[in-house]
Design goal:
The complex is a heterodimer of chains A (255) and B (186). Chain A has eight helices and two strands. Chain A is mainly α and 255 residues long. Chain A is globular, with a radius of gyration of 22 Å. The model of chain A is unreliable at 1-10 (pLDDT under 50). By secondary structure, chain B is mostly helical. In chain B, helix 3 runs antiparallel to helix 4 (174-185). In chain B, 10% of the residues are buried. The chains are: A mainly alpha (255), B mainly alpha (186). The interface between A and B is large, with 63 and 50 residues.
């Protein structure tokens, strides 16, 4: 969230201003359509890559703390991918790893003051979800051929139910990227709006004099609790996105 | 679980704050903003680069370290297992050597014991034989003495009879007395 003018005219709270996109790098950024959102994507990718690079640089048999952290993150996503997708999980592991850490780093970077949460933009989350959707369709065709279409009629269904079930299955299949993207987007927006609103309350109360100064402690306390909650939500949403990706891919590679 | 209080908290300020924030619309839905589409394109490029860097360099590096560790631990375990097998074999050899030595010692003791027993038996048998021979010779001598005694008995009897006969009848016929004595003593 941004610390920018969140209190407009001293009486209302501009909870959504933090999501506005502004070009960075001046005219060059404007010309390249480069806003703070891609900037933080770059930072997030760099943080993850530097974390892995610095963590694994000792390549020690007995790892230190940072190396252990890097190895744990590797093992965590690797186990997730292999146990969910199955024996072909290793093929998709780098993809799942990229998804998980791209979202996690985005969620956590967004909690820093003056930063920007790119996962709070439906365009970004929908782009990620569509990518997962397309890749799972391509994997279906690659692993099962056109036969994957029979998933739209669950095995053992009476034929006369097909006209009813096939459209339902198709709709539920097509709604996957929508639910996947809206879940992440809504969670991040809600959390950041809450943080902004309570921060705004603090400023409004502080304007009321000495009594207000005392009362203003309450929203700060709530914001501390909300930050803890956002830390949980950030990792949870990244995990949910990654595990749903794995589940869609398992359906794609299963026979 | 966490949704309910969160949604409540979310709804409370929205209800409390006059509608400007909502009315202004969400910047995320302002699709006329070229920056909004721009971030999707940039996002695709950055995510693609991120994916390539991870799959080509970062993750294989982690995997190499993990594989190295696994093989190293495996090798160390193999070495330890080999050492243990060798120690087991040496210990088994030692045991069997000790067992063998004990067997040999027992056999040795038995041989000496049986030799001693055989010696003693031979010695006893020899003594017995010698004693038997002595007994036999003694018996022969006894028999001889008795026979001798018995043969002189007839002479004594004859001479006594002759004396008795000559004292009784004053005369005597040696031949008759002798034959009579012989008849009686036979």
């Amino acid at each position: 969230m941004t610390g920018e003018a969140s209190v407009a005219a001293g009486s209302t709270i501009d909870a959504l201003g933090q999501f506005e996109l502004h070009p960075v790098l001046g005219h060059l950024g404007e010309a390249l359509r480069f806003s703070q959102s891609p900037l933080f994507m770059l930072i997030a990718a760099a943080v993850v890559l530097v974390f892995l690079y610095v963590g694994m640089r000792p390549a020690a048999v007995v790892p230190g703390r940072l190396q252990a952290a890097a190895e744990i993150s590797y093992d965590f996503v690797h186990d997730l991918a292999v146990s969910t997708i199955g024996e072909n999980g290793a093929t998709f592991f780098p993809f799942v790893f990229a998804i998980f850490f791209f979202i996690l780093a985005g969620n956590y970077l967004g909690l820093l003051p003056f930063s920007f949460t790119y996962t709070s933009h439906i365009a970004v989350t929908f782009g990620l979800a569509i990518m997962v959707f397309i890749i799972s369709i391509l994997a279906s065709i690659r692993f099962q051929g056109v036969g994957f279409l029979k998933h739209f009629l669950p095995a053992g269904t009476p034929v006369w139910l097909a006209p009813l079930l096939v459209p339902i299955e198709i709709i539920s299949f097509l709604s996957r990227p929508v639910s996947l993207s809206i879940r992440l987007f809504a969670n991040m927006v809600a959390g950041h709006v809450l943080l902004e609103v309570f921060a705004g309350f603090t400023i409004m109360l502080a304007g009321l004099g000495a009594f207000g100064h005392v009362l203003a402690i309450a929203p700060i306390a709530i914001n501390i609790a909300l930050t803890a909650l956002e830390l949980l939500v950030g990792v949870l949403q990244a995990y949910v996105f990654a595990i749903l990706t794995c589940i869609y891919l398992r359906e794609a590679v299963a026979h | 679980m966490y949704r309910t209080p969160r949604l409540f908290l979310f709804a409370a300020p929205l209800a409390a704050v006059p509608g400007r924030a909502v009315a202004a619309g969400m910047p995320q839905l302002n699709f006329h903003d070229p920056l909004l589409i721009g971030q999707v394109v940039w996002g695709a490029v950055i995510f693609g680069g991120f994916y390539l860097a991870l799959s080509r360099f970062a993750l294989p590096r982690v995997e190499r370290v993990l594989t190295n560790r696994r093989t190293r631990i495996q090798n160390d375990l193999d070495v330890a297992r080999k050492a243990k097998a060798e120690a087991d074999r040496a210990s088994a050899e030692l045991l069997s050597a000790r067992h063998e030595a004990a067997e040999q010692a027992r056999a040795h003791v038995e041989r000496i014991q049986s030799e001693a027993r055989a010696n003693a038996e031979a010695h006893a048998a020899e003594t017995a034989k010698r004693l038997e021979a002595e007994i036999a010779s003694a018996e022969t001598r006894i028999t001889q003495s008795r026979e001798q005694a018995l043969s002189s008995l007839s002479e004594i009897a004859t001479s006594t009879t002759q004396d008795l006969v000559s004292r009784l009848i004053g005369t005597q016929d040696e031949q008759t007395v002798a034959s009579a004595v012989k008849r009686v003593s036979a």
